[in-house]
Amino acid sequence: MTSNSVPTLRGHPLWGSLMDFNRDSLSLIESAARCGDLVRIRFGPMQGYFVNHPDAVCKVLAARSKSFRKPAVVKRALSDILGENIFTSNGAAWKRSRQALQPAFHLRHVERYTQVMIESIEREMRDWRAGQVVDLEAAMIRVTMNIIVKTMFDADLGSHADELTGVFTRLFHLAYKRMAFYALLPNWLPTRANREVKRLAAELRALLRSYIAEWRAGRAGEAALLNLALAPADGRPSMSDEQLINEAITIIGAGYETTAYTLVFTWLALMQNPPVADRVYAEVAESIGTRALTLADLPKLNYAERVVKEALRLYPSAWGLSRSTLEPVDIAGATLPRNSMVLVSPWTLGRDARWFPDPLRFDPDRHMPALAASIPHYAYIPFGGGGRTCLGIRFALMEAVIVIASIAQRFRLTPTPESATGPKSVAFTLRPNGPLRVNLWPLSDHAGASPEADPRPAASAINTSVLSLCPVHRVR
Ligand code: HEM
Questions:
Q1: How far, in Å, CA of 128 to CA of 450, rounded?
Q2: Which of 170, 205, 460, 467 is buried most, with the most CB atoms less than 10 Å from its CB?
Q3: CA geometry: angle at 198 spanning 196 and 199, to 5°?
Q4: According to the model, what pLDDT value does residue 95 have?
Q5: Which residue CA neighbors atom 2 of ligand 1 most closely?
Q6: Which atom of ligand 1 is nearest to the CA of 346?
Q7: The CATH number fitting domain 3-473, selected from 2.60.120.260, 1.20.1250.20, 1.10.630.10, 3.40.50.720
Protein backbone atom coordinates (compact mmCIF):
# COMPACT_ATOMS: atom_id res chain seq x y z
CA MET A 1 0.00 0.00 0.00
CA THR A 2 1.32 3.46 -0.83
CA SER A 3 0.72 6.35 1.55
CA ASN A 4 -1.99 7.58 -0.87
CA SER A 5 -4.20 4.61 -0.14
CA VAL A 6 -4.14 5.23 3.62
CA PRO A 7 -7.60 6.41 4.80
CA THR A 8 -7.70 10.16 5.46
CA LEU A 9 -9.71 11.73 8.24
CA ARG A 10 -12.27 14.04 6.71
CA GLY A 11 -11.53 17.67 7.44
CA HIS A 12 -11.84 21.21 6.13
CA PRO A 13 -10.65 21.58 2.50
CA LEU A 14 -8.01 24.13 3.53
CA TRP A 15 -6.85 23.47 7.06
CA GLY A 16 -7.89 19.83 7.30
CA SER A 17 -8.27 18.75 10.95
CA LEU A 18 -6.09 21.49 12.45
CA MET A 19 -8.96 23.46 14.03
CA ASP A 20 -10.71 20.30 15.30
CA PHE A 21 -7.44 19.16 16.82
CA ASN A 22 -6.91 22.50 18.52
CA ARG A 23 -10.52 22.57 19.77
CA ASP A 24 -10.70 19.03 21.16
CA SER A 25 -7.67 16.86 20.47
CA LEU A 26 -8.96 13.81 22.34
CA SER A 27 -12.17 13.63 20.30
CA LEU A 28 -10.20 14.04 17.11
CA ILE A 29 -7.79 11.19 17.82
CA GLU A 30 -10.68 9.00 18.97
CA SER A 31 -12.32 9.64 15.59
CA ALA A 32 -9.06 8.65 13.92
CA ALA A 33 -8.81 5.49 16.07
CA ARG A 34 -12.29 4.44 14.89
CA CYS A 35 -11.07 4.64 11.30
CA GLY A 36 -8.19 2.21 11.55
CA ASP A 37 -4.71 1.53 12.81
CA LEU A 38 -3.09 3.88 10.31
CA VAL A 39 -4.98 7.05 9.40
CA ARG A 40 -3.82 10.17 7.65
CA ILE A 41 -4.70 13.48 9.28
CA ARG A 42 -4.18 16.79 7.49
CA PHE A 43 -2.98 19.68 9.67
CA GLY A 44 -3.10 22.66 7.33
CA PRO A 45 -0.27 22.19 4.82
CA MET A 46 1.19 19.22 6.73
CA GLN A 47 0.37 15.52 6.60
CA GLY A 48 0.23 13.62 9.84
CA TYR A 49 -0.18 9.86 10.30
CA PHE A 50 -1.97 8.51 13.31
CA VAL A 51 -0.55 5.10 14.23
CA ASN A 52 -2.67 2.98 16.56
CA HIS A 53 -1.52 -0.64 16.55
CA PRO A 54 1.04 -1.86 19.11
CA ASP A 55 3.22 -3.51 16.42
CA ALA A 56 3.32 -0.32 14.38
CA VAL A 57 3.88 1.78 17.52
CA CYS A 58 6.81 -0.49 18.37
CA LYS A 59 8.31 0.34 14.97
CA VAL A 60 7.96 4.08 15.55
CA LEU A 61 9.30 4.18 19.10
CA ALA A 62 11.76 1.30 19.10
CA ALA A 63 12.43 -1.03 16.16
CA ARG A 64 12.84 1.74 13.53
CA SER A 65 13.42 4.65 15.92
CA LYS A 66 16.54 5.72 14.00
CA SER A 67 14.27 6.65 11.09
CA PHE A 68 12.36 9.13 13.29
CA ARG A 69 13.14 12.31 15.17
CA LYS A 70 11.24 14.69 17.44
CA PRO A 71 9.28 16.98 15.07
CA ALA A 72 10.81 20.35 14.24
CA VAL A 73 7.57 22.09 15.18
CA VAL A 74 7.89 20.89 18.81
CA LYS A 75 11.51 21.91 18.98
CA ARG A 76 10.78 25.31 17.49
CA ALA A 77 7.86 26.05 19.82
CA LEU A 78 10.10 25.36 22.81
CA SER A 79 13.49 26.52 21.52
CA ASP A 80 13.65 29.90 23.30
CA ILE A 81 12.47 28.29 26.57
CA LEU A 82 14.43 25.06 26.74
CA GLY A 83 17.24 25.47 24.21
CA GLU A 84 18.97 22.17 23.38
CA ASN A 85 17.77 19.52 25.85
CA ILE A 86 17.09 15.82 26.35
CA PHE A 87 13.39 16.05 25.46
CA THR A 88 13.51 17.81 22.09
CA SER A 89 17.00 17.04 20.80
CA ASN A 90 17.90 14.26 18.39
CA GLY A 91 20.88 12.11 17.43
CA ALA A 92 24.23 12.72 19.11
CA ALA A 93 23.00 15.70 21.20
CA TRP A 94 20.17 13.58 22.66
CA LYS A 95 22.54 10.69 23.37
CA ARG A 96 24.93 13.00 25.27
CA SER A 97 22.09 14.36 27.44
CA ARG A 98 20.61 10.93 28.07
CA GLN A 99 23.99 9.46 29.04
CA ALA A 100 24.71 12.35 31.40
CA LEU A 101 21.33 12.32 33.16
CA GLN A 102 20.41 8.63 33.17
CA PRO A 103 22.61 7.53 36.12
CA ALA A 104 20.74 9.83 38.52
CA PHE A 105 17.50 7.97 37.75
CA HIS A 106 18.85 4.55 38.58
CA LEU A 107 16.63 2.77 41.11
CA ARG A 108 19.21 2.87 43.89
CA HIS A 109 19.44 6.66 43.56
CA VAL A 110 15.73 7.21 43.17
CA GLU A 111 15.29 5.39 46.47
CA ARG A 112 17.34 8.13 48.12
CA TYR A 113 14.66 10.61 47.16
CA THR A 114 11.88 8.84 49.05
CA GLN A 115 12.54 10.88 52.19
CA VAL A 116 12.06 14.11 50.23
CA MET A 117 8.83 12.73 48.78
CA ILE A 118 7.51 11.72 52.20
CA GLU A 119 8.42 15.07 53.78
CA SER A 120 6.86 17.06 50.96
CA ILE A 121 3.44 15.39 51.19
CA GLU A 122 3.59 15.53 55.01
CA ARG A 123 4.28 19.28 54.83
CA GLU A 124 1.38 19.77 52.41
CA MET A 125 -0.99 17.88 54.72
CA ARG A 126 0.14 19.70 57.88
CA ASP A 127 -2.90 21.98 57.83
CA TRP A 128 -5.37 19.42 56.50
CA ARG A 129 -8.20 18.65 58.94
CA ALA A 130 -11.19 16.34 58.60
CA GLY A 131 -14.25 18.38 57.62
CA GLN A 132 -12.22 20.72 55.39
CA VAL A 133 -12.43 21.11 51.63
CA VAL A 134 -9.08 20.96 49.81
CA ASP A 135 -8.19 21.97 46.27
CA LEU A 136 -6.60 18.64 45.32
CA GLU A 137 -5.26 19.80 41.96
CA ALA A 138 -3.39 22.76 43.49
CA ALA A 139 -2.10 20.58 46.35
CA MET A 140 -0.74 17.85 44.06
CA ILE A 141 0.95 20.41 41.80
CA ARG A 142 2.61 22.05 44.82
CA VAL A 143 3.80 18.71 46.20
CA THR A 144 5.27 17.44 42.91
CA MET A 145 6.98 20.79 42.22
CA ASN A 146 8.50 20.86 45.70
CA ILE A 147 9.72 17.28 45.28
CA ILE A 148 11.40 17.78 41.91
CA VAL A 149 13.16 21.02 42.90
CA LYS A 150 14.30 19.64 46.25
CA THR A 151 15.61 16.41 44.73
CA MET A 152 17.35 18.16 41.88
CA PHE A 153 19.03 21.05 43.70
CA ASP A 154 18.46 20.26 47.37
CA ALA A 155 16.66 23.65 47.39
CA ASP A 156 13.53 24.42 49.38
CA LEU A 157 10.92 26.33 47.43
CA GLY A 158 8.78 26.91 50.48
CA SER A 159 6.05 29.40 49.66
CA HIS A 160 7.49 30.02 46.16
CA ALA A 161 6.21 26.71 44.74
CA ASP A 162 2.97 28.31 43.48
CA GLU A 163 4.90 31.12 41.76
CA LEU A 164 7.18 28.68 39.99
CA THR A 165 4.32 26.45 38.82
CA GLY A 166 2.56 29.61 37.61
CA VAL A 167 5.55 30.48 35.41
CA PHE A 168 5.79 26.92 34.02
CA THR A 169 2.08 26.68 33.33
CA ARG A 170 2.03 29.99 31.47
CA LEU A 171 5.19 29.23 29.48
CA PHE A 172 3.98 25.83 28.33
CA HIS A 173 0.56 27.26 27.51
CA LEU A 174 2.18 29.85 25.24
CA ALA A 175 4.45 27.22 23.68
CA TYR A 176 1.49 24.96 22.96
CA LYS A 177 -0.38 27.82 21.30
CA ARG A 178 2.60 28.29 19.02
CA MET A 179 2.50 24.61 18.14
CA ALA A 180 -1.24 24.56 17.71
CA PHE A 181 -0.87 27.06 14.90
CA TYR A 182 2.11 25.26 13.52
CA ALA A 183 4.58 27.86 14.65
CA LEU A 184 3.48 29.94 11.68
CA LEU A 185 5.08 33.02 13.20
CA PRO A 186 8.79 32.99 14.03
CA ASN A 187 9.72 33.19 17.72
CA TRP A 188 11.73 36.39 17.17
CA LEU A 189 8.69 38.41 16.00
CA PRO A 190 7.93 40.84 18.85
CA THR A 191 4.30 39.74 19.30
CA ARG A 192 2.81 40.11 22.78
CA ALA A 193 2.99 36.33 23.33
CA ASN A 194 6.61 36.09 22.16
CA ARG A 195 7.62 38.97 24.43
CA GLU A 196 5.91 37.27 27.35
CA VAL A 197 7.72 33.99 26.61
CA LYS A 198 11.02 35.89 26.53
CA ARG A 199 10.36 37.62 29.85
CA LEU A 200 9.16 34.49 31.69
CA ALA A 201 11.94 32.31 30.28
CA ALA A 202 14.52 34.91 31.42
CA GLU A 203 13.00 34.95 34.94
CA LEU A 204 13.02 31.18 35.11
CA ARG A 205 16.59 30.90 33.86
CA ALA A 206 17.75 33.50 36.40
CA LEU A 207 16.17 31.51 39.23
CA LEU A 208 17.71 28.23 38.08
CA ARG A 209 21.06 29.96 37.55
CA SER A 210 21.03 30.92 41.23
CA TYR A 211 20.29 27.31 42.26
CA ILE A 212 23.08 26.08 40.01
CA ALA A 213 25.50 28.61 41.51
CA GLU A 214 24.66 27.23 44.98
CA TRP A 215 25.14 23.72 43.67
CA ARG A 216 28.46 24.53 42.01
CA ALA A 217 29.58 26.12 45.29
CA GLY A 218 29.03 22.72 46.88
CA ARG A 219 26.11 23.81 49.03
CA ALA A 220 23.72 21.05 47.89
CA GLY A 221 23.72 17.76 49.78
CA GLU A 222 25.44 14.86 48.06
CA ALA A 223 22.14 13.15 47.27
CA ALA A 224 21.01 16.05 45.05
CA LEU A 225 20.07 14.67 41.67
CA LEU A 226 22.52 16.98 39.91
CA ASN A 227 25.39 15.62 41.97
CA LEU A 228 24.49 12.09 41.01
CA ALA A 229 24.18 12.94 37.34
CA LEU A 230 26.90 15.46 36.83
CA ALA A 231 29.55 15.21 39.52
CA PRO A 232 32.70 16.04 37.56
CA ALA A 233 35.03 13.07 37.75
CA ASP A 234 38.10 15.11 36.87
CA GLY A 235 37.15 18.40 38.53
CA ARG A 236 35.86 19.91 35.26
CA PRO A 237 32.12 20.57 34.94
CA SER A 238 30.57 18.02 32.57
CA MET A 239 27.98 20.51 31.31
CA SER A 240 27.96 24.28 30.90
CA ASP A 241 25.59 26.24 33.15
CA GLU A 242 23.36 27.15 30.20
CA GLN A 243 23.08 23.51 29.12
CA LEU A 244 22.36 22.56 32.71
CA ILE A 245 19.59 25.17 32.89
CA ASN A 246 18.07 23.71 29.70
CA GLU A 247 18.08 20.22 31.18
CA ALA A 248 16.80 21.41 34.55
CA ILE A 249 13.82 23.24 32.99
CA THR A 250 13.11 20.13 30.90
CA ILE A 251 13.24 17.72 33.84
CA ILE A 252 11.11 19.97 36.04
CA GLY A 253 8.65 20.54 33.17
CA ALA A 254 8.52 16.83 32.26
CA GLY A 255 8.31 15.70 35.86
CA TYR A 256 6.01 17.80 38.01
CA GLU A 257 2.83 18.28 36.01
CA THR A 258 2.62 14.74 34.60
CA THR A 259 2.95 13.29 38.09
CA ALA A 260 0.59 15.82 39.67
CA TYR A 261 -2.17 14.99 37.20
CA THR A 262 -1.52 11.27 37.54
CA LEU A 263 -2.22 11.76 41.26
CA VAL A 264 -5.31 13.85 40.56
CA PHE A 265 -6.74 11.18 38.24
CA THR A 266 -5.79 8.36 40.58
CA TRP A 267 -7.85 10.05 43.30
CA LEU A 268 -10.70 10.73 40.89
CA ALA A 269 -10.73 7.03 39.96
CA LEU A 270 -10.58 5.97 43.62
CA MET A 271 -13.49 8.23 44.50
CA GLN A 272 -15.51 6.79 41.61
CA ASN A 273 -14.63 3.17 42.48
CA PRO A 274 -15.16 2.64 46.22
CA PRO A 275 -14.31 -1.11 46.25
CA VAL A 276 -10.92 -0.30 44.73
CA ALA A 277 -10.43 2.50 47.26
CA ASP A 278 -11.32 0.09 50.10
CA ARG A 279 -8.53 -2.25 49.02
CA VAL A 280 -6.02 0.61 48.98
CA TYR A 281 -7.08 1.70 52.48
CA ALA A 282 -6.87 -1.88 53.74
CA GLU A 283 -3.40 -2.35 52.25
CA VAL A 284 -2.13 0.90 53.78
CA ALA A 285 -3.70 0.11 57.18
CA GLU A 286 -2.23 -3.42 57.25
CA SER A 287 1.24 -2.59 56.02
CA ILE A 288 1.88 0.81 57.62
CA GLY A 289 -0.94 1.75 59.94
CA THR A 290 -0.45 5.21 61.40
CA ARG A 291 3.32 5.20 61.80
CA ALA A 292 5.54 7.22 59.45
CA LEU A 293 6.00 5.65 56.03
CA THR A 294 9.53 4.59 55.04
CA LEU A 295 11.31 3.22 52.00
CA ALA A 296 10.99 -0.30 53.45
CA ASP A 297 7.18 -0.04 53.19
CA LEU A 298 7.09 0.51 49.45
CA PRO A 299 7.32 -3.15 48.37
CA LYS A 300 4.22 -3.83 50.52
CA LEU A 301 2.15 -1.28 48.60
CA ASN A 302 1.65 -3.47 45.53
CA TYR A 303 -2.01 -2.76 45.11
CA ALA A 304 -1.51 1.01 45.40
CA GLU A 305 1.09 0.76 42.64
CA ARG A 306 -1.33 -1.18 40.42
CA VAL A 307 -3.94 1.51 41.05
CA VAL A 308 -1.51 4.19 39.83
CA LYS A 309 -0.66 2.08 36.76
CA GLU A 310 -4.35 1.64 35.97
CA ALA A 311 -4.93 5.39 36.35
CA LEU A 312 -2.10 5.90 33.87
CA ARG A 313 -3.82 3.53 31.41
CA LEU A 314 -7.11 5.42 31.43
CA TYR A 315 -5.66 8.87 32.09
CA PRO A 316 -2.18 8.99 30.58
CA SER A 317 -1.06 12.52 31.42
CA ALA A 318 1.11 12.61 28.28
CA TRP A 319 -1.73 11.64 25.94
CA GLY A 320 0.04 12.10 22.61
CA LEU A 321 3.59 11.44 21.40
CA SER A 322 4.86 12.82 18.12
CA ARG A 323 7.71 12.04 15.77
CA SER A 324 8.62 12.87 12.20
CA THR A 325 10.13 10.57 9.60
CA LEU A 326 13.73 11.12 8.52
CA GLU A 327 13.30 8.84 5.50
CA PRO A 328 10.49 6.79 3.88
CA VAL A 329 9.36 4.19 6.44
CA ASP A 330 7.13 1.11 5.98
CA ILE A 331 4.47 1.10 8.69
CA ALA A 332 1.29 -0.98 8.92
CA GLY A 333 1.49 -1.94 5.25
CA ALA A 334 2.10 1.57 3.87
CA THR A 335 5.19 3.60 3.07
CA LEU A 336 5.18 6.92 4.90
CA PRO A 337 7.12 9.57 3.01
CA ARG A 338 10.07 11.48 4.47
CA ASN A 339 9.15 14.39 6.75
CA SER A 340 5.76 12.96 7.70
CA MET A 341 4.49 13.77 11.17
CA VAL A 342 3.55 10.63 13.13
CA LEU A 343 1.24 10.71 16.12
CA VAL A 344 0.94 7.89 18.67
CA SER A 345 -1.49 8.04 21.56
CA PRO A 346 -1.25 6.25 24.93
CA TRP A 347 -4.86 7.46 25.38
CA THR A 348 -6.40 5.52 22.45
CA LEU A 349 -4.11 2.50 22.89
CA GLY A 350 -4.97 2.21 26.58
CA ARG A 351 -8.71 2.34 25.85
CA ASP A 352 -8.72 -0.19 23.03
CA ALA A 353 -10.90 -3.24 23.76
CA ARG A 354 -8.60 -5.44 21.65
CA TRP A 355 -5.88 -5.12 24.29
CA PHE A 356 -7.90 -4.25 27.39
CA PRO A 357 -11.22 -6.13 27.69
CA ASP A 358 -14.00 -3.93 29.10
CA PRO A 359 -11.62 -1.01 28.64
CA LEU A 360 -13.46 1.66 30.61
CA ARG A 361 -13.58 -0.49 33.75
CA PHE A 362 -11.06 0.71 36.32
CA ASP A 363 -9.41 -2.58 37.22
CA PRO A 364 -5.94 -2.36 38.82
CA ASP A 365 -5.58 -6.15 38.73
CA ARG A 366 -4.94 -5.96 34.99
CA HIS A 367 -1.43 -5.03 36.09
CA MET A 368 -0.86 -8.19 38.17
CA PRO A 369 2.28 -9.72 36.61
CA ALA A 370 0.45 -12.82 35.27
CA LEU A 371 -2.24 -10.74 33.52
CA ALA A 372 0.04 -7.89 32.45
CA ALA A 373 2.12 -10.41 30.50
CA SER A 374 -0.76 -10.85 28.04
CA ILE A 375 -0.97 -7.13 27.19
CA PRO A 376 0.96 -6.38 23.98
CA HIS A 377 4.06 -4.47 24.96
CA TYR A 378 3.32 -1.30 23.03
CA ALA A 379 -0.38 -1.16 23.94
CA TYR A 380 0.43 0.24 27.37
CA ILE A 381 2.79 3.18 26.90
CA PRO A 382 1.98 5.95 29.39
CA PHE A 383 5.74 6.45 29.76
CA GLY A 384 6.50 6.11 26.04
CA GLY A 385 8.75 3.31 24.79
CA GLY A 386 12.05 2.40 23.15
CA GLY A 387 15.24 4.39 23.72
CA ARG A 388 13.35 7.57 24.62
CA THR A 389 11.24 5.96 27.34
CA CYS A 390 10.58 8.38 30.19
CA LEU A 391 13.65 8.84 32.33
CA GLY A 392 11.50 9.37 35.42
CA ILE A 393 9.35 6.17 35.45
CA ARG A 394 10.62 4.84 38.77
CA PHE A 395 10.75 8.31 40.26
CA ALA A 396 7.14 9.02 39.24
CA LEU A 397 5.70 5.65 40.33
CA MET A 398 7.45 5.81 43.68
CA GLU A 399 6.35 9.39 44.22
CA ALA A 400 2.75 8.61 43.30
CA VAL A 401 2.55 5.58 45.60
CA ILE A 402 4.06 7.55 48.51
CA VAL A 403 1.63 10.44 48.06
CA ILE A 404 -1.43 8.16 47.71
CA ALA A 405 -0.45 6.05 50.73
CA SER A 406 0.33 9.09 52.91
CA ILE A 407 -3.07 10.62 52.23
CA ALA A 408 -4.80 7.24 52.67
CA GLN A 409 -3.20 6.92 56.12
CA ARG A 410 -5.21 9.93 57.29
CA PHE A 411 -8.25 10.75 55.18
CA ARG A 412 -11.05 9.49 52.99
CA LEU A 413 -11.80 11.86 50.12
CA THR A 414 -15.05 12.66 48.32
CA PRO A 415 -15.49 15.19 45.54
CA THR A 416 -17.50 18.36 46.18
CA PRO A 417 -20.65 18.57 44.03
CA GLU A 418 -19.21 20.84 41.32
CA SER A 419 -16.03 18.78 40.94
CA ALA A 420 -14.58 17.24 37.79
CA THR A 421 -15.96 13.91 36.58
CA GLY A 422 -13.30 13.01 34.03
CA PRO A 423 -10.52 14.33 31.83
CA LYS A 424 -10.13 16.83 29.02
CA SER A 425 -6.98 17.62 27.10
CA VAL A 426 -5.23 20.88 27.71
CA ALA A 427 -1.97 21.59 26.00
CA PHE A 428 0.48 18.71 26.46
CA THR A 429 -1.31 17.01 29.34
CA LEU A 430 -4.68 15.64 30.39
CA ARG A 431 -6.51 17.78 32.94
CA PRO A 432 -9.72 17.26 34.90
CA ASN A 433 -12.80 18.66 33.17
CA GLY A 434 -13.48 20.98 36.11
CA PRO A 435 -11.97 21.96 39.45
CA LEU A 436 -11.18 19.06 41.76
CA ARG A 437 -12.05 20.08 45.28
CA VAL A 438 -12.46 17.29 47.81
CA ASN A 439 -13.99 16.86 51.26
CA LEU A 440 -11.67 15.37 53.85
CA TRP A 441 -13.21 12.68 56.05
CA PRO A 442 -11.61 11.09 59.08
CA LEU A 443 -10.75 7.43 58.55
CA SER A 444 -12.43 6.40 61.78
CA ASP A 445 -15.81 7.67 60.52
CA HIS A 446 -15.57 5.56 57.47
CA ALA A 447 -17.40 2.48 58.75
CA GLY A 448 -20.52 4.44 59.72
CA ALA A 449 -20.50 7.68 57.82
CA SER A 450 -18.63 6.68 54.72
CA PRO A 451 -19.13 9.24 52.03
CA GLU A 452 -21.28 7.71 49.33
CA ALA A 453 -19.66 6.82 46.05
CA ASP A 454 -19.87 9.76 43.71
CA PRO A 455 -23.24 9.04 42.06
CA ARG A 456 -22.45 11.01 38.93
CA PRO A 457 -21.30 8.96 35.96
CA ALA A 458 -17.65 9.28 35.01
CA ALA A 459 -17.32 11.37 31.88
CA SER A 460 -17.47 9.03 28.94
CA ALA A 461 -13.90 8.48 28.02
CA ILE A 462 -14.20 7.17 24.56
CA ASN A 463 -16.66 8.17 21.89
CA THR A 464 -16.73 11.73 23.15
CA SER A 465 -16.69 12.83 19.55
CA VAL A 466 -19.92 14.13 18.05
CA LEU A 467 -19.12 12.07 14.98
CA SER A 468 -20.70 8.67 15.27
CA LEU A 469 -19.42 7.27 12.00
CA CYS A 470 -15.89 6.94 10.84
CA PRO A 471 -15.34 10.33 9.17
CA VAL A 472 -12.96 9.00 6.62
CA HIS A 473 -12.51 9.35 2.92
CA ARG A 474 -10.06 7.65 0.70
CA VAL A 475 -7.67 9.53 -1.50
CA ARG A 476 -6.93 7.90 -4.79
C1 HEM B 1 3.43 9.99 35.78
C2 HEM B 1 4.38 10.83 35.43
C3 HEM B 1 5.04 10.84 34.09
C4 HEM B 1 4.56 10.51 32.86
C5 HEM B 1 3.17 10.01 32.51
C6 HEM B 1 5.64 10.71 31.92
C7 HEM B 1 5.54 10.44 30.57
C8 HEM B 1 6.59 10.55 29.68
C9 HEM B 1 6.54 10.16 28.29
C10 HEM B 1 5.32 9.57 27.59
C11 HEM B 1 7.75 10.40 27.75
C12 HEM B 1 8.18 10.08 26.31
C13 HEM B 1 7.89 11.22 25.38
C14 HEM B 1 8.19 10.87 23.94
O15 HEM B 1 8.61 9.75 23.62
O16 HEM B 1 7.96 11.74 23.08
C17 HEM B 1 8.59 10.98 28.77
C18 HEM B 1 9.88 11.40 28.60
C19 HEM B 1 10.64 11.95 29.58
N20 HEM B 1 10.31 12.08 30.91
FE21 HEM B 1 8.58 11.53 31.78
N22 HEM B 1 6.74 11.17 32.59
C23 HEM B 1 6.43 11.27 33.91
C24 HEM B 1 7.27 11.66 34.94
C25 HEM B 1 8.56 12.08 34.78
C26 HEM B 1 9.44 12.50 35.85
C27 HEM B 1 9.05 12.50 37.34
C28 HEM B 1 10.61 12.89 35.28
C29 HEM B 1 11.85 13.40 35.91
C30 HEM B 1 12.05 13.52 37.20
C31 HEM B 1 10.47 12.70 33.84
C32 HEM B 1 11.45 12.97 32.91
C33 HEM B 1 11.36 12.68 31.56
C34 HEM B 1 12.42 12.95 30.61
C35 HEM B 1 13.75 13.62 30.92
C36 HEM B 1 11.97 12.52 29.36
C37 HEM B 1 12.72 12.58 28.02
C38 HEM B 1 13.41 11.26 27.76
C39 HEM B 1 14.15 11.22 26.42
O40 HEM B 1 13.68 11.77 25.42
O41 HEM B 1 15.21 10.56 26.39
N42 HEM B 1 9.22 12.20 33.58
N43 HEM B 1 7.86 11.04 29.95
A1: 18
A2: 205
A3: 65
A4: 93
A5: 259
A6: 10
A7: 1.10.630.10
